[in-house]
Design brief:
The protein contains 17 helices and 2 strands. The protein is mainly α. It has a two-stranded parallel sheet. Helix 8 crosses helix 16 (330-344) and helix 10 (202-223) packs across helix 11.
């Protein structure tokens, strides 16, 4: 369910800004963004961000060790769930080479934070996220709108069978409850992804992934009684899933979808399928900069702190070209996504009456 350009160099890249002389609409926009210096690295920002998140990660597990076999560990579980979400967002930035320009350090960092840190396969996620960025909201090409559990369009609803059909009639009401399973889904999908032939460095991926799982589960059941360990496990993974799902849900759900050969040019394909979320510094931190989803999809290697500045350029440029640029508040973004889920489930509901 997670909404996800192999990151520039690991991704299906947008037209290169260097070619932005007189060419496409995107090329002219890219020239403005490049000239503003918004694609330059921000080592100071990422040093601070990685240090803070790393310190909080260590603090959470230190508190876990000190508190011992107590129900107060459920508070630690909630805290660590949020920190796991922040680690996932750092992994996302590493994948897009927002932190390092070169592929090698980005991959090493991604596997350390993803596989070892939170038990999410970097290789599996990158393969999925690459395809999403290349064709967002394309029903045949974007894995994030596959009708594996939920249906995302009327056509998918009409053709649904099995679990999607069973859930589809009430999927808007079940969306957030289902997110409590997303943390578990990430781990299961990561393990299944190890069997893919497209997985690079499979041995490294597997070793780091299973090391995380062994240490994580070992710590829970060594420090806590079985009942408390299970409670910690479910609360931690449930809150982690809801948090991460809530970060990605506003980005594309309820925005236009494409099918077949219906694929506009790169600029319009990215802008028309993406939704920005208004907010201040707290929103930027909580959503990891993905509240500037339009700018992120246009320039995935752009460092997070530059996205707010890029927004002014992109929004103004879209107005020049009369391209719809959609931005809303956080609660409104969830409302739009849920209304869409309810609307596309109509064929299933009608068939049951």
């Amino acid at each position: 369910m997670m909404t996800s350009i192999e990151a520039p160099g690991a991704q299906s890249s947008p037209p290169a800004p260097a070619a932005a002389g007189t060419g496409s609409d995107f090329a002219r926009l890219a020239k403005r963004v490049t000239n503003a210096g918004l694609l330059d690295r921000r080592p100071g920002y990422y040093t601070l961000r990685l240090s803070v998140v790393g310190a909080l990660f260590v603090a959470g597990w230190t508190a876990f060790a000190l508190i011992g076999d107590s129900w107060w560990q459920l508070a630690v579980a909630g805290f660590l769930a949020v920190i796991f979400g922040q680690v996932a967002l750092i992994t996302h930035d590493l994948a897009h080479r927002q932190i390092f320009r070169r592929r090698r350090p980005s991959e090493i960092g991604g596997r350390i934070f993803g596989n070892l840190g939170i038990g999410m396969s970097y290789g599996w996620w990158m393969n999925k996220h690459t395809r999403h960025h290349a064709n967002p909201n394309h029903e045949e090409l974007d894995p994030d709108v596959n009708p594996d559990i939920l249906v995302w369009s009327l056509d998918q609803a009409r053709a649904s069978r099995g679990l999607p059909r069973f859930i589809g009639s009430r999927q808007a009401y079940l969306f957030f409850p289902l997110l409590t399973l997303e943390g578990f889904n990430l781990h299961v999908s990561s393990i299944r992804g190890l069997g893919s032939r497209s997985m690079k460095r499979r041995g490294v991926e597997a070793a780091m992934l299973f090391t995380h799982l062994a240490v994580y589960l070992g710590a829970l059941f060594l420090v806590l009684s079985p009942g408390k360990a299970v409670a910690f496990l479910f609360l931690h993974q449930a809150v982690f899933g809801v948090y991460l799902g809530s970060v990605f849900a506003p980005n594309h759900k309820g925005m236009p979808t494409f099918t077949g050969d219906d694929r506009p040019d790169f600029l319009r394909r990215q802008v028309l399928t993406s939704r920005n979320v208004r907010g201040g510094a707290l929103t930027d931190i909580a959503l990891g900069g993905l509240n500037y989803q339009i700018e992120h999809h246009l320039f995935p290697s752009m460092p997070t702190p530059h996205l707010r500045r890029a927004q002014k350029i992109v929004r103004s440029y879209c107005a020049e070209l009369n391209i719809a640029y959609h931005e809303t508040g956080l609660i409104a973004s969830y409302s739009e996504a849920l209304r869409h889920l309810h609307a596309v489930g109509a064929p299933i509901r009608h068939s049951l009456t």
